[in-house]
Amino acid sequence: MSRKALIEGDNHGEKRMAYSILIVDDDKAIKDYVEAHLKCFSYKVKSAENAYEALKILKSFKADIILTDITMQGMDGLELTRKIKKTFDTDVMVMTGYSADYSYEKAIQAGASDFIFKPFRLAELDLRIKRVLREAEFKKERSKLLKELEKLAITDALTELYNSRHFFSQIKTEINRHNRYLRPLSLLILDIDFFKIYNDTWGHLEGDKVLMRIGKVINSCMRSMDTAYRYGGEEFAILLPETGLQKACMVGARIKDNICSQIFEPEPMTKRSITVSIGATELVKGEDFKSFISRTDKALYKSKETGRNKLTY
Ligand code: GH3
Ligand code: MG
Ligand code: MG
Ligand code: MG
């Protein structure tokens, strides 16, 4: 059952068990009373008698909601709220008996998600807690979806490498970074040799399997800071930050040799291998991305012109 479903239900205790609440109130009677009832409602509850104790508890207790009094000795509830919102992604609800001194506005400005006046009915408190939890779940769900969408937008579906859109944005970012700090940056562009013949002979689906495998091989040969892209239909690009030409050629050669040694079986009992041609360049000072790519492309075409299955720089 999802956590969202857990809080959408009726008053059944089990539905709240997944959630933790920290109560902060210097009035021990109120603190104990609220704690006892929220435990009855089946929340996991801890409590603190002041803001400092609350902050200490939060180091080891992951609360979904912090329910805090405002008027307390030392750090008050609003300051505690501000502190918590700086460090934790936790909802804070404030409760106060002094409606004239502490406005709803101040509490919300401090970062609170809700505000309740003492004395309150426990049923109302429970409803407010459930609403805050529900909104937190929606927020979490929304940001998860957004992250997935962002990932999809920069991923090539077939090879799961980055796509060309991301390549053009990253190459500009890397060039800026490497110009600013005067660090080396290299680029490899790789193109499958005679891939049209492979496709025409064995079919597009078998060709796709080759592309997928090449994606995996490239990934396995890269260092962690390198990034690989499916740049065109059967062309791949690899950006190598902090890497001079010589090192980039070594990575390229490793990729090339590894691809060469792959065995494909487009039909039972039919074993085939493929080769790739590679162009390698290192960024020169003041160069823009168009020139950087164009020089790498030229090196690649030299590999093609002079026999394929090789790396040119
Ligand atoms: P060269 O050695 O000169 O690169 O020859 P080539 O046949 O690889 O190059 P060409 O540009 O003539 O053909 C590229 C082929 O790549 C054409 C197309 O069938 C294939 N291709 C491009 N994108 C895809 C794809 O997404 N899937 C499959 N299976 N094939 C693709
Ligand atoms: Mg108080
Ligand atoms: Mg090509
Ligand atoms: Mg090709």
Automatic annotation (TrEMBL):
Residues 183-313 form the GGDEF domain. It catalyses: 2 GTP = 3',3'-c-di-GMP + 2 diphosphate. It comes from the Bacteria. Keywords: Phosphoprotein. InterPro entries: CheY-like_superfamily, Diguanylate_Cyclase, GGDEF_dom, Nucleotide_cyclase, Rev_trsase/Diguanyl_cyclase, Sig_transdc_resp-reg_receiver. The modification 4-aspartylphosphate is found at D69. GO terms for cellular component: plasma membrane. PANTHER family: DIGUANYLATE CYCLASE DGCM-RELATED (PTHR45138:SF9), REGULATORY COMPONENTS OF SENSORY TRANSDUCTION SYSTEM (PTHR45138). Residues 20-133 form the Response regulatory domain. GO terms for molecular function: diguanylate cyclase activity. Its EC number is 2.7.7.65. This is diguanylate cyclase.
